[in-house]
Design brief:
heterodimer; A: about 110 residues; mainly beta; six-stranded mixed beta sheet; five-stranded antiparallel beta sheet; B: about 110 residues; about 0% helix
């Protein structure tokens, strides 16, 4: 079945640094979503991508839908302490989404 | 809009007891999903409804799990009898135009 891989699994960065993470699959998806989960809360939608090659920004966040439709990346510029959390990608198949295992981000002051 | 509302936020129960988790989706969202999150398995889809009708329950672990959606504004996930391996965070999500909106989850601990 559909499965997503995310890399890196976890990362520690210094405040102010840029961050890049990606999501890959052997399956083609028509929609990619990026979510962030804070401790003790549910995932919150950050960015939605609907077309291959699409590049979308939301403040300091930028995400791209890969040309092959099998991958997506998320960049965070000038990280701040509140960027800490788990970032999930999700790909749509039918009416459902399959979630990646997440990238755990820690930001050091 | 208050978002997706789940209750309780935390539940601690003894093995063998019945547990009922509740969810109120966002008004107007016609899809509702129940997910389970653990460290080992990440986010797993358990079941989803469309217009209150269960569409796919293939993710429900076993017969001890059941879910209902009696109307468009309410759904329950029941575990009977509960077991320690059911300990996890259970999320409800409803789907709108731009993807899922998740509730804050119910952290279930079965001792």
């Amino acid at each position: 079945g559909q499965q997503l891989n995310q890399s890196p699994q976890s990362m520690f960065i210094q405040e102010g640094e840029d961050v890049s993470m990606n999501c890959t699959s052997s399956s083609i998806f028509n929609t990619w979503l990026w979510y962030k989960q804070d401790p003790g809360e549910g995932p919150v939608l950050l960015i939605a991508l609907y077309k291959a090659g699409e590049l979308t920004s939301n403040g300091r966040l930028t995400a791209q839908f890969g040309i092959t439709r099998k991958d997506s990346f998320l960049n965070i510029s000038a990280s701040i302490p509140s960027d800490v959390g788990i970032y999930f990608c999700a790909g749509q198949y039918g009416q459902n989404f399959v979630f990646g295992p997440g990238t755990r981000l820690s930001v050091l002051p | 809009d208050a978002g997706v509302i789940q209750s309780p936020r935390h539940e601690v129960t003894e093995m063998g007891q019945e547990v009922t988790l509740r969810c109120k989706p966002i008004s107007g969202h016609d899809y509702l999903f129940w997910y389970r999150q653990t460290m080992m398995r990440g986010l797993e889809l358990l079941i989803y409804f469309n217009n209150n009708v269960p569409i796919d329950d293939s993710g429900m672990p076993e017969d001890r799990f059941s879910a209902k959606m009696p109307n468009a504004s309410f759904s329950t996930l029941k575990i009977q009898p509960s077991e320690p391996r059911d300990s996890a965070v259970y999320f409800c999500a409803s789907r709108g135009q731009y993807g899922y909106t998740f509730g804050s989850g119910t952290r279930l601990t079965v001792v």
